[in-house]
Amino acid sequence: MTPERPRGEDAIPNLPASVEPSAPVNEPASVQLYAALDLGTNSCRMLVARPRGSQFDVIDSFSKTVQLGAGLEASGRLSRASMGRTIQALRVCQKKIEKHGVTRMRLVATEACRRARNAKDFIRQVRRETGLSLEIIQPEEEARLAVISCAPLVSPRTEQLLVVDIGGGSTELVWIDLSSVAPDHRARAIMRLHRGFHGEDGARVVDWISVPLGVATLKDQFVDVEDDGARFALMSWFFEENLASFSPYNAQNPREGFQIIGTSGTVTTVAASFLNLKRYDRAKVDGLEMTSDQIDFVIRDYLSLGPEGRRTDPRIGRDRHSLIMSGAAILQALMRIWPTDRLSVADRGLREGLLYAQMSADGVLTEGPYA
Considering the entire predicted model, what is its pTM? Predict the structure, then answer.
């Protein structure tokens, strides 16, 4: 992950300054609370939130590196050790859900569980030992949820939008044409994609792809390459090769009106490193714009540090140091391909998308900029 964060870290929109994410909160009985849990290849993350206007307030959160996909590339199965770590984390989530009396929730698993031969057995074990019902979602829904979470960061000037979600086991890319949407309505049109990629609100999904390569799976592909620089270059070019079927690949679009939004631990770590943050500060990272040159500078710095230097760099953090170069290889490939010299950094993702989708479906978000 990004530099070591306080308990209850990670994407927390509109958090009241007086409320600590992990602190018990006595909510009025009339307030419906929602939970969203994202169990990925590397991490288990959860948010508990309440709707507020067209947005939501996070009242509790959880994030833990569980490495559920460790060894999956070689065996095709979730290991006993990785399932044990994950179930321990899920027990914490279950206690938080119970403490807040949450009844409206979506608890989803992504690429590791999509690929593992024993995923159904694992889901049953989770249900038996924690009482939680995990749902394995398909890549299209994962991509859609990541997109709508980024709606507040879409510029009114954006006509062509690429949203990139670099996960542990896969990377989702969605290309959206907003040219027929009035500038003031573009973020709202993105939010309405929770209904599906084939909506009629003016935001047209040109193409999307889920590449089965994330920070963990890409690293595993090249673990036998000893030279640090050579391994990085091979990972970057290999990822680019896997984008060949994505229709906007090498699209000849003008830089004017084009925006890339990146959402992942990789992107926020690169941003934190650029800002030289020894302690992570979401307020400084979320929404930050970085130029290609600034991103390249950080990546060159990572390479010059070498594996040992990255391990001890407080800007990277203990949970992220072994995965940052595979994530950086993906990021470099994306910036090499598409016609922009800027990237918008999003400290938000699947969990926020799950919350927006649930609240929108229930009609508890008021009409506003993003509802």
Answer: 0.82
Residue 59, amino acid: I
- Residue written as tokens 């049953």? 124
Q: How confident is the model at residue 4, as a pLDDT?
A: 37
Length of the chain as a residue count: 371
322-344 residue pLDDT tens: 999 999 999 999 988 886 788 99
Bridge-based pairing of strands 135-136 and 160-166 is unpaired
Q: Are strands 55-65 and 160-166 parallel, antiparallel or unpaired?
A: unpaired
Q: What angle do CA 306, 307, 311 make, to 5 degrees?
A: 115
b/e burial code for range 32-65 (CB count within 10 A of at least 16 → b) = ebbbbbbbbbbbbbbbbbbbeebbbbbbbbbbbb
Instruction: Give the Cα-Cα-Cα angle 80, 85, 86 (nearest 5 degrees).
Output: 95
**E strand or H helix at 261:** strand 258-263
Q: Which residues have C-beta within 8 Å of that of residue 4, sequence separation ≥ 6?
A: 279, 280, 314, 317, 318, 319
How far apart are the C-alpha atoms of 131 and 109, rounded to whole Å? 15
Residue ranges and CATH numbers for the domains of the chain are 141-346 (3.30.420.150)
Q: How many CA atoms lie within 13 A of 293 on its CB side?
A: 0
Four-CA torsion 237, 351, 279, 331, nearest 10 degrees = 10
